[in-house]
Amino acid sequence: MKITFANPEMPKKGVVVVGVLDGRKLGGSAKALNEVMSGGLVRAMKASRFKGSNGQSLALLAPGGTRLDRILLVGLGKPASLDASALQHLGGELYGALSTKGHATVQVLIDPIENCKMQPDEMAAEIAFGARLRSYRFDKYRTREKVEAKPSLKNLKIICKGSARARSAFSPKNKVADGVFLTRDLVSEPANVLYPETLAKQAQSLTKLGVKVEVLGEAQMHKLGMGALLGVGQGSVRESKMVIMQWNGKKGKGKSESPVAFVGKGVTFDTGGISIKPSGGMEDMKWDMGGSGVVIGLMRALAGRKANANVVGVVGLVENMPSGSAQRPGDIVTSMSGQTIEVLNTDAEGRLVLADALWYTKGRFKPKFMVDLATLTGAIIISLGNEKAGLFSNDDKLSEQLREAGEAVGESVWRMPMGDSYDKMIDCDAADMKNISGGRGAGSITAAQFLKRFVDKTPWAHLDIAGVTWSNKTTSIVPKGGTAFGVRLLDRLVADNYEK
Ligand code: BES
Ligand code: MN
Ligand code: ZN
After folding, report:
1. Would residue 169 count as lying in a domain?
2. Burial (CB count within 10 angstroms: exposed 0-12, middle 13-18, buried 19+), residue 280
3. How far is the CA of 284 from the centre of ligand 3 (A)?
4. Is 350 touching ligand 1 by the criterion CB < 6 Å?
5. What pTM value is reported for the model?
């Protein structure tokens, strides 16, 4: 979909979207339309339950007195409630309401609103962002879909005062949307197409944007002593990889400042290995690389909008398969840190991958902080459902920054407890630690405690995104499927705290 901005003009033809405030209060454009319709717009509202409340809409087809095809009235609610996220949702909802109606072009009229904190150009940029986010679709394998079922909307034209300012405000948001789309693509691809090598290739495509990308293969990881990660991948015919991405965008005297780091779990398919999973629903494990997908999409967003920050992204890529060469329950592996791990359950593989990825990142880059993302535990879905990601951290300030960024973009995180009594649960007689507690409780917390043993003193946070990486229902700016939860959140974390 192409999104354009234009200065105020009244469209003569086609489809027009116009806002109505709470209590059926009309802005300038709606009043003008009502006039040419000889009061028909107001009568239509009165003939319906449309009050202009947020979330309401009313479609008028072939409105008399005009040559328009359709007017869509959208409820704006109260002026004071109109903030960035409300407008993004509005943009998403109007895309949802109009994309499959057969129109190729839609024109959105934005008027200044009294007592609203946002100017028309700012509103325009947020509406455009929301509409773009909602417009994502993964349809590359649908060769026989009927044209009538596909979205027809190709051009979204947003008409407001200060359209040039709107265009420049939208530009960085659009880059973030590019990152979100990349993540959604990666998460949606099946595991026969997306495996460590092809996922690494996708990351390498970021070099076009100025990201420095290195790919380690098994031989190099072996030399580095990454026995934890390599053990997970050893049952697969696909070679394990680690990808290191660097965006050095910091300008001025902070140029050589130490970076912030994001680390992702990239299990391109998780069968469970020898501790094999039940077959029902196993197809979901194609998105067990969701954490790595977020890190790659985030790097694209940051590089795309030329973020004024030094950022490292590291992803550990493996396929967890059962085979004659697979790791067995009871195997003891030595991680890059030197700590040994008894692998009691080969399905608790994400933490093994992250153990080496975190240790490597910490040692090589000495980052200001590390945030890892992983579809790590089913238990976090029991705790938080599909609404919030679990946040685990050794640092209150970082936790608070993550919480605030999450609230700001509508990707909510909830901090979970950690502590010595949980840490003890992964102590082990045969090795330095075991990869599962063996008990039934606190599965997400013991997983986090495991990761904490590989971050040393570095400020660190772990986001368990198992419940939020995939969605079975469409919401205003997130179509069902891969959500890319984390890209907008971490982009915001960087923007608000590390680009000053
Ligand atoms: N990838 C899974 C976690 C998962 C489950 C992600 C459901 C998304 C949806 C992870 O590797 C796993 O298998 N975890 C086990 C850990 C257990 C063996 C301690 C789990 O949660 O059951
Ligand atoms: Mn697993
Ligand atoms: Zn997994």
Report:
1. no
2. exposed
3. 10
4. yes
5. 0.98
Domain boundary among 139, 162, 185: 162
Helical packing angle, 290-304 and 487-497, nearest 10°: 50
Residue 117: CB atoms within 10 Å: 11
Give the H or E element holding residue 340. Answer: strand 340-343
Rounded CA gap, 494 and 280, in Å? 39
Residue 211, helix vs strand vs coil: coil
Whether the CB-CB separation of 162 and 121 falls below 8 Å is answered with yes
Residue 372 beta carbon below 6 angstroms from any ligand 1 atom: no
Statement: residue 500 has pLDDT above 90? no
Neighbours of ion ligand 3 (CB under 5 A): 267, 270, 288, 350
Ligand 1 neighbour 288 (Cβ under 6 A): yes
Average pLDDT score over residue span 287-299: 99
Q: What would the pLDDT profile of 368-397 be if each residue is shown by its tens digit?
A: 999 999 999 999 999 999 999 999 999 999
Q: Identify whether the C-beta of residue 300 lies closer than 8 Å to the C-beta of residue 342.
A: no
Residues 268 and 119 in one domain: no
CA 455 vs. chain centroid, Å, equals 24
Strand pairing of 340-343 and 331-334? antiparallel
Give me the half-sphere count of Cα atoms (radius 13 Å) on the Cβ side of residue 425: 20
Range of the domain at 300: 175-497
- Catalytically active residues are 277, 351
Task: Indicate if ligand 1 lies below 6 Å from the C-beta of 377.
Answer: yes
